[in-house]
């Protein structure tokens, strides 16, 4: 979670944002071991993203809601989810962070045929891990995710965990035009080669700004999920001390975030324990200040006037029960390294891409005739000198191959000038070190954020056979080449 690097970026022309609200979701009762049947339908819809007096925004949605319905599953209980495609283009669903069979991973061409318009596909898996996960398309990802197709997936622990309330905040970032419609320009060369498509509106659970109602003395489990295309977030809870319990669905040693800021890159999730120690009737802001000079209020904790729920504060939060992740054997590990290359101000290290220059130079030029990374379908990024563009397809050559059961010691080195949340499909990675310093708190993640010039070492056991995607979860970066595949045989 901690980057060991400066978390601020200079002003790059990002737009100021507005805030969102929160939704309380009740715990689903324990069910029998029978298969849990669900249906999701992806189709055009509408959402009231802005003020109630403004027209709704045309979106794409699962089951007519933005974000899609929260899927609360049970650890170890089989689930069967039928996905129906009501769009006019192919789609799939990727169950982000779930360790499942390769055929259920949702990468078109690589693990399954895409779901054609008016067709359906049945996903079946048994979630081995409890925690906070999410689901989203892995076909035309930039557009489909950017138009609203995303939802939270919560796998409840086999034994209940004691909290007064369990909340999910699904964070989405939208680029809206003046008329409130989603702006065009998906896949622009500027977005592809720099920070990605950062929007001008942030919502929480798809709603316009509103307070989160709380009561003094209660303890909340707050699940935070960043479903944005590109926006990084760093949240401060005014007057409160959140304790991190899990990252990317995997429990860690409970700890307070470094400098009090919860850093969430696209695709990351963080579970926190939040003790309501404010005054009855008080309001406390939750601020996102990741981008230098562009801080805004994401939400507010609004206390009712009732007396505190408890006379005495609770003891410090205890650790969540660990999931059954195989422990890496570092002594016998096979070492692999991937190097992230390219992008604007990337030093020209991406073969075949011209026009690598600083942003100030780009902004001052007439762009006519200039080949810019990501323009006209050219790749803007590479991993180990190879660019794989798009969402995935059949015949993708693996970057490396692992025998089933071997421990992989993976080094990820960011040679670029940009931030990259690197997501691995099918596995969770045990973080070992960042820039040579040990990573504390026994953190397992499926999405590892690398600041410019960061080097992260991590490890995992290759116990899940198949061809698995490894890519940046800034959607523009993935589509423009920052993607690779590894194979487990």
From TrEMBL:
CDD domains: CuRO_1_CumA_like (cd13861), CuRO_2_CumA_like (cd13885)
Keywords in alphabetical order: Metal-binding, Oxidoreductase
Classification via Pfam families: Cu-oxidase, Cu-oxidase_2, Cu-oxidase_3
InterPro entries with a match to the protein in the record: Cu-oxidase-like_N, Cu-oxidase_2nd, Cu-oxidase_C, Cu-oxidase_fam, Cu_oxidase_CS, Cu_oxidase_Cu_BS, Cupredoxin, TAT_signal
Boundaries of every Plastocyanin-like domain copy: 48-158, 185-289, 395-488
Name this protein carries in UniProt: Multicopper oxidase family protein
């Amino acid at each position: 979670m901690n980057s060991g690097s400066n978390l601020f970026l200079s002003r790059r022309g990002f737009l100021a944002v507005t805030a969102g609200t929160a939704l309380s979701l009740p715990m689903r009762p324990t069910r029998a071991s029978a298969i849990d049947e669900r249906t999701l339908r992806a189709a055009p819809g509408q959402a009231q993203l802005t003020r109630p007096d403004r027209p709704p925004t045309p979106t794409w949605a699962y089951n007519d809601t933005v974000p899609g319905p929260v899927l609360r599953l049970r650890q170890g209980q089989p689930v069967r989810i039928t996905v129906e495609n009501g769009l006019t283009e192919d789609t799939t669903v990727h169950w982000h962070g779930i360790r499942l069979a390769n055929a259920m991973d949702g990468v078109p061409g690589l693990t399954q045929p895409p779901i054609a318009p008016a067709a359906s596909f049945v996903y079946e898996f048994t979630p081995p891990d409890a925690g906070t996960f999410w689901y989203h398309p892995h076909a035309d990802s930039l557009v489909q995710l950017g138009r609203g197709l995303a939802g939270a997936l919560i796998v409840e622990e086999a034994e209940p965990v004691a909290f007064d309330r369990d909340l999910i905040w699904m964070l989405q970032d939208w680029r809206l035009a003046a008329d409130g419609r989603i702006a065009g320009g998906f896949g622009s060369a500027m977005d592809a080669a720099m920070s990605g498509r950062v929007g001008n509106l942030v919502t929480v659970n798809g709603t316009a700004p509103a307070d989160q109602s709380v009561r003094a003395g209660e303890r909340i489990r707050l699940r935070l999920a960043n479903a944005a295309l590109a926006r990084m977030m760093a949240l401060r809870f005014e007057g409160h001390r959140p304790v991190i319990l899990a990252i990317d669905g995997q429990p860690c040693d409970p700890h307070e975030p470094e400098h009090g800021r919860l850093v969430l890159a696209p695709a990351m999730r963080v579970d926190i324990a939040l003790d309501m120690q404010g005054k009855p009737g008080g309001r406390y802001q939750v601020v996102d200040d990741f981008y230098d000079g562009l801080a805004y209020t994401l939400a507010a904790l609004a206390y009712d006037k009732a007396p505190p729920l408890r006379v005495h504060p609770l003891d410090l939060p205890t650790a969540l029960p660990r999931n059954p992740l195989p422990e890496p054997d570092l002594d016998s590990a096979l070492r692999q390294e991937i190097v992230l290359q390219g992008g604007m101000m990337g030093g020209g290290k991406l073969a075949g891409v011209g026009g690598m220059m600083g942003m100030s130079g780009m902004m001052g030029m007439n762009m006519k005739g200039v080949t810019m990374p990501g323009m006209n379908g050219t790749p803007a990024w590479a991993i180990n000198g190879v660019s794989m563009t798009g969402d995935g397809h059949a015949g993708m050559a693996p970057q490396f191959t692992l025998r089933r059961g071997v421990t992989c010691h993976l080094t990820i080195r960011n040679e670029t000038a940009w931030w990259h949340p690197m997501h691995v499909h099918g596995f969770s990675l045990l973080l070992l070190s960042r820039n040579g310093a040990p990573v504390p708190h026994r953190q397992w993640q499926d999405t590892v954020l690398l600041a410019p010039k960061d080097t992260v070492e991590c490890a995992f056991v290759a116990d899940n056979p198949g061809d698995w995607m490894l890519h940046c979860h800034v959607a523009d970066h993935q589509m423009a080449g920052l993607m690779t595949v590894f194979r487990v045989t």
